């Protein structure tokens, strides 16, 4: 049964509308409609109050109570101030406002929705307009301490247990050394950190002389667990890791006195255990995944080798090997083609051989193109930027396009002392270990004009640069 107040209000409105028309006007009387609006649809939690406006197409002849409901993924009282659920549109007015207070907390969250829906005007639905609901997207202004920046891994001194990780923010204005130690409140955590691999939110730090992998949250660097360790048999001289088919694959040199005990450890990433091993030829080093296929460059470990093993990550079996040149040290995938850079044997071996760059067809797993360096040239650190390849040789950086048919003859950047390097978004990041006793440095170059952007002091023996992006909810 209609409330008397609404009955009289509707009657009054109808009378007003009818008397405003001429006797011969056949137009249907127009009933007022109330809607909701806001200036924008996305707001940061730090923006402060948001004004919601409730507007009627006509003024009412009496105070009108507007009733609304609040839904969505955002939580009332936590993400925003609790709302009363009603407000009054005064007599003769056509609009009223409601202030929505956003709570600026310290929690890192995904974007959330606040939905305001007008459900009644003076207890009924007769005067609800078409714009009766709106959705606000509430974005977070917080971030994890180590997202959007660079992680620099440091070996530390062999046997000293002083491996470390530094964080450099994305605009290169801040360097934080020793973040693992600081976050996890430990004095020492590893002997000779070798490499780091990301998988989802996790970072896996291969610690060579501690025979283990430290698993941390890559954005907070809080410890999640340890795989292996001194006295354990999971690893033996672990080197590098890749992820394929939901598993982790870690290259191991094995015992230096035994050329036949090298292997790739297969990790269960759900419980952080080694579930099996794959026997491989001597000296597995860098490992790269393409879908469910793994490519392992056999640099030689304690000896020397000249092959790339191909592993099926579904069957965990070596399906073939690809012969390249002596000491393949780095690989890159460009347009589904595998580029393998071999350093060749250095002069001190007594059997010096030339470096070589090979392009491998990943469908047939055969070498399609070979570019050979001079016998005394020993390149390393193959990196990629779009369709260009970069490598380090003779204290210099050289570059070439993937369609080039000859090696470059002139260097792009000279007088360097890199221990490793990586490229990201048109910038070259090289680490200099200096004298291997004092702190090293991170050198950043703009590949547009080959200029040095910054040189930042990091920690002892920096060995790799890893790019940590946005946290992905």
From TrEMBL:
A cellular-component GO term for this protein: membrane
GO biological process: cell communication
Keywords associated with the record: Calcium, Repeat, Signal
Domain Calx-beta: 42-142
Keyword rRNA-binding (UniProt): no
Signal peptide boundaries: 1-23
Pfam families linked: Calx-beta, DUF5074
InterPro entries noted in UniProt: CalX-like_sf (IPR038081), Calx_beta (IPR003644), DUF5074 (IPR031815), Host-pathogen_enzymatic-act (IPR051200), Quino_amine_DH_bsu (IPR011044), WD40/YVTN_repeat-like_dom_sf (IPR015943), YVTN_b-propeller_repeat (IPR011964)
PROSITE patterns registered for this protein in UniProt: PROKAR_LIPOPROTEIN
NCBIfam families tied to this protein: beta_rpt_yvtn
Alphabetical list of PANTHER family matching this protein: DIHYDRO-HEME D1 DEHYDROGENASE (PTHR47197:SF3), PROTEIN NIRF (PTHR47197)
Protein's name according to its UniProt entry: YncE family protein
Organism: Ulvibacterium marinum
